[in-house]
Amino acid sequence: MGFTFDLNEAEQFDEKDVLAAFRDEFYIKKGQYYLDGNSLGLLSKKAEQAVMDLLGSWRKYGIEGWMEGEHPWFTLSESLGDKTAPLIGAKPSEVIVTGSITVNLHQMLSTFYQPEGKRTKIAADELNFPSDIYALQSQISLKGLNPEEQLIKAASEDGVTLTVEDIDRVCTDEVAVLLLPSVLYRSGQLLPIKEITKRAHEKGILVGFDLAHSIGAVPHQLHDWGVDFAVWCNYKYMNNGPGGTGGLYIHEKHHDHMPGLKGWFGSDKEKQFDMAHTFTKADGAGAYQIGTPNILSTAPLIGSLALFEEAGIEKLREKSLHQTGYIAAFVEKELQQFGMKKVTPSADEDRGGHIALQHPYAAGICKAMKAEGIIPDFRAPDIIRLAPAAFYTSYKDLYEAMQLIRRIMKEETYKHYSNERNVIA
C-alpha cells in the first residue's frame, strides 16, 4: 500500500477518516493503545446510556416493563435481531438476539444434526475454537454415537490457515453438518463462506458458521449465500460488553423446523402466556430462543447497533482493512528482522479484522507491550493478535503503538518478562 510509517502520514489519515468522530463515542483510557477489540470491544457512551435507560424502565415500570417503555423487554430480542440483520445480510425474520455462542450452537445442532443412514458425521476443522468443538462432541454423544468416530476435522497444512481443498476433503457423503468459523481466531483468516456453502450444499451437507470474529467487522450476505445457520457473540466488534447476549441466524427455508431445544420464549408471542403444555413455535428465528431474555446483558446492544446504523458496516470494513493492512506492512518492513512472522493472509478478501503475529516469545512480548500501554491479545502457544477497531482506533495511535513494538523487539525488552501466559490470555 506504500505506507511511509511516519507521524505526518498518520495525521493525514486521521484528517481524512470519515469515521474519526466515532472515537469520541467510546471510553478510551488515556495513554493506552487498545488493540484487543477482537476479544472485547470498548464501552461506548450510547451503550452505557442504553443500560441506564433499561435500568430506568425497571425502576419506573416494574413488571410492566415487559410491555411498556421505549424498549419493551418482551420483544427486545426480536427488535434487536431486526437491526442486526443488515450487518450479516439476513432478513429480519432470520435473526434473533439471544443466548451465547455455545448455547446457540447447541440449539442449532440439536435442531439440524439428525444422523440418519450413512450421514452420521459432523465436519469441523482442527483450528476451531475449543468451545465449538466441545459442543459438537456433546451433541454427537447425546445421539448415542462416538465423537472420536463421528467428528472429523479438516487438517491445516501450515497450522494456522485452511484452504477450500482442506475443507473439501472432510465433506464426504457421510457428513450431515459442516460447522466452521467465518474467521479463524488464531490467524485472522477469513474463509470464503459463499464458496464453502455452495460446495457443501452440492454434496447434501447443511452448513453453519461461527461469526464471532467477523460480525461487526466484516459484512456478509448469509441469506443470499444460502448459509443454513450461524451463531455469534456480541462482545467483540459489536461492543456489547463482557458476556453480553449473543445471537443466531437461521435461513428462512428452515423456519418450519421444530427447535431441538424447546423453551417458552420460542413460543408464538400470542400464545406464550396461555401456559399450555403444547408448544406453538414462533414463525422466525425467535422460535429458537430458549429462556427468558437477559435484558441487562442485552441492553448495551441498543446503543451499539445505533452506532453501526450511523457508521455503516461497509465503511467500517474499509477502514478496518486499511488499518490491518498498515500493521501487516509495518511487520513485513520493520519487524520480520526480529523473528516476528505475520500468519494472517495478505489479500483483503482473505483477512478478517485482526492481524496475527507468530514469535517463539509471544507471551513475553505481550507482557512487554502492556507495560508500554499497548493492549494486545495472546493465543497459545506463540500468537500475538492485534486488532484495530474502526470505530475508535486512530491512525496516530496505530503509528505510536507500532513504533513502540519496534522498540520492544529491537531492544529485546520482552526478555525481562516470563514467556508464560497469564490465567486469562
UniProtKB/TrEMBL annotation:
- A Pfam family (short name) is KYNU_C
Q: Does the keyword Hydrolase apply?
A: yes
Q: Name one GO molecular function term.
A: kynureninase activity
Q: So what does this thing catalyse?
A: 3-hydroxy-L-kynurenine + H2O = 3-hydroxyanthranilate + L-alanine + H(+); L-kynurenine + H2O = anthranilate + L-alanine + H(+)
Query: What PANTHER family does this protein's entry cite?
Result: KYNURENINASE (PTHR14084)
- Summarize subunit and interaction data from the UniProt record for this chain: Homodimer.
- State what protein this is by name: Kynureninase
Give the species this sequence originates from: Jeotgalibacillus haloalkalitolerans
Question: Which gene holds the coding sequence for this protein?
Answer: kynU
